[in-house]
């Protein structure tokens, strides 16, 4: 770890190009991508990295799109991550396991639809790379207690008294970003009144690299393929959406009762099941910052936009933010501009605004469309799904969206 706790006396100032608040998946990816472009950063995180990567601390998994995988490879993480991810070879989408499903499967020469990674494995790879990177000063178990932005730069005071300076402040603190809120960003937001139940499953049948998205009126039920464990047991990640009014009851269930409910919704597609990870839950809400920049400030990842996990695009949208921001900053710095230049931030905002709105609107529409109960809506949905199944051009569009290969891609996300 490039731990500046031991290098910078209290009250001293060290200037770097960026101060990144939040060293999670998106924040640390930004630091590494920026470092590869010769851009230095302070990364500040209140957590202890050892706690974040402890065995059993986080049972969540993330879908990494083809574009996001390109980003990880382009910043030197490909070899570390290659053996840890499970390829998503196909996606099966169904309305309650009734007839009329869609099967998304790319051609053999097109690669996968993405890869599934345990969040813990992603964190370990990012943290190991960061500790050896001289362009990253990593400040852990501390937080910003003062953030000052002005015409001449940024100054941040940490809870331990140290003072850091930079040209640009980047908020990557997640959904509850205090920096975003302190800056007074306007937000579009609403509550879905649903909760995601997240865990991992062992199952007797192999998943064959297939991700299942099963839609029920109460919410989607996703089974996402993971690599077999060291004992050869088949594994998948589960994201089960339940109505908030039912969530307390589901959380209170014993593991045996929980598994019975899950098995009923799976219709035996993966055989017998048992838990492979801790059960977690979190409320599902939509939020989108109307603007993502201010004076010497850029907001990225979940701090800028949070959506329903229905399409697994949350992390990928944040990584597109990373690619675009690094490209804009590095091009500007080559022209002699500093990272906090208002022209560069305006270009970043313009680039990301349309893409993020389109992805979030599509996700929200899908959530509402499949949440309409009743036989007639179900029949209409299955009719539409059948049409998509029969139209190669339409299937190609949806697959490109899932792989993150549509629209104007930052260079780091290209193959």
Label this structure with key terms.
415 residues; alpha+beta; FAD/NAD(P)-binding domain; nine-stranded mixed β-sheet; eight-stranded mixed β-sheet; 12 helices; 29% strand
Average pLDDT over all residues: 85
Q: What's the domain count?
A: 1
Outline: globular
Assigned CATH class: Alpha Beta
CATH topology (fold) name: FAD/NAD(P)-binding domain
Terminal CA distance reads 30 Å
CATH superfamily: FAD/NAD(P)-binding domain
Number of helices: 12
* Relative strand content: 25-35%
Integer-rounded radius of gyration: 22 Å
Low-confidence stretches: 1-12
Number of strands: 20
Architecture per CATH nomenclature, i.e. the level-2 architecture? 3-Layer(bba) Sandwich
Tell me the structural class.
alpha+beta
Helix content: 25-40%
Oligomer: single chain
**Largest sheet at a glance?**
9 strands, mixed
InterPro entries: FAD-bd, FAD/NAD-bd_sf, Ubi_Hdrlase_CS, UbiH/COQ6, UbiH/COQ6_monooxygenase
Cofactor: FAD
Protein name: UbiH/UbiF/VisC/COQ6 family ubiquinone biosynthesis hydroxylase
Pathway: Cofactor biosynthesis; ubiquinone biosynthesis
Question: Would you give an account of this structure?
Answer:
Belongs to the UbiH/COQ6 family. Residues 17-353 form the FAD-binding domain. InterPro entries: FAD-bd (IPR002938), FAD/NAD-bd_sf (IPR036188), Ubi_Hdrlase_CS (IPR018168), UbiH/COQ6 (IPR010971), UbiH/COQ6_monooxygenase (IPR051205). It comes from Novosphingobium decolorationis. Strands 5, 6, 12, 13, 14, 15, 16, 17 and 20 form a nine-stranded mixed sheet that branches. Strands 1, 2, 8, 9, 10, 11, 18 and 19 form an eight-stranded mixed sheet that branches. A three-stranded antiparallel sheet has the order 3-7-4. 35% of the residues lie in helices and 29% in strands. It has helices spanning 25-36, 49-52, 66-74, 78-81, 119-131, 178-182, 244-252, 255-266, 314-334, 342-370, 375-390, 392-403; strands at 13-21, 41-45, 61-64, 86-87, 90-95, 102-104, 115-118, 136-140, 144-150, 153-158, 163-171, 187-203, 210-216, 219-226, 234-243, 273-275, 280-289, 293-294, 297-299, 305-306. Residues 1-12 have low confidence and may be disordered. It has a single domain, classed as FAD/NAD(P)-binding domain (3-Layer(bba) Sandwich).
């Amino acid at each position: 770890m490039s731990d500046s706790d031991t290098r910078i006396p209290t009250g001293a100032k060290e200037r770097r190009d960026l101060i990144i608040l939040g060293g999670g998946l998106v924040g640390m990816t930004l630091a590494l991508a920026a470092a590869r472009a010769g851009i230095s950063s302070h990364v500040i995180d209140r957590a202890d990295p050892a706690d974040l990567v402890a065995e059993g601390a986080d049972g969540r998994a993330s879908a990494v799109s083809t574009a996001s995988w390109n980003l990880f490879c382009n910043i030197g993480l490909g070899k570390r991550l290659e053996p840890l991810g499970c390829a998503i070879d196909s996606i099966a989408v169904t309305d309650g396991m009734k007839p009329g499903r869609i099967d998304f499967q790319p051609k053999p020469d097109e690669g996968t639809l993405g890869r599934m990674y345990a969040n813990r494995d992603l964190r370990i790879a990012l943290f190991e790379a960061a500790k050896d990177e001289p362009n990253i000063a990593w400040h852990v178990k501390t937080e910003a207690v003062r953030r000052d932005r002005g015409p001449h730069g940024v100054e941040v005071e940490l809870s331990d008294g140290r003072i850091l300076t930079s040209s640009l402040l980047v908020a990557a603190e997640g959904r509850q970003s205090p920096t975003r809120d302190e800056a007074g960003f306007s937000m579009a937001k609403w509550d879905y009144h649903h909760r995601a139940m997240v865990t991992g499953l062992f199952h007797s049948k192999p998943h064959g690299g297939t991700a299942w998205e099963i839609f029920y009126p109460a919410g989607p039920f996703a089974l996402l393929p993971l690599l077999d464990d060291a004992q050869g047991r088949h594994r998948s990640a589960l994201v089960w959406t339940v109505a908030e009014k039912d969530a307390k009851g589901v959380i209170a269930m014993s593991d045996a009762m929980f598994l019975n409910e899950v098995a009923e919704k799976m219709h035996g597609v993966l055989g017998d099941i048992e838990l492979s990870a801790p059960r977690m839950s979190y409320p599902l809400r939509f939020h989108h910052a109307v603007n993502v920049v201010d004076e010497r400030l850029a907001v990225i990842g979940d701090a800028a936009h949070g959506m329903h996990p229905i399409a697994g695009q949350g992390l990928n949208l944040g990584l597109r933010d990373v690619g675009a921001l690094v490209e804009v900053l590095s091009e500007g710095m080559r022209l002699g501009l500093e990272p906090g230049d208002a022209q560069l931030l305006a270009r970043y905002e313009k680039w990301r605004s349309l893409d993020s709105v389109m992805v979030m609107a599509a996700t929200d529409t899908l959530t509402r469309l499949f949440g309409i109960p009743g036989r007639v809506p179900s029949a209409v949905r299955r009719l539409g799904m059948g049409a998509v199944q029969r139209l190669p051009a339409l299937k190609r569009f949806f697959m490109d969206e899932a792989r993150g290969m549509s629209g104007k891609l930052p260079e780091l996300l290209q193959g």
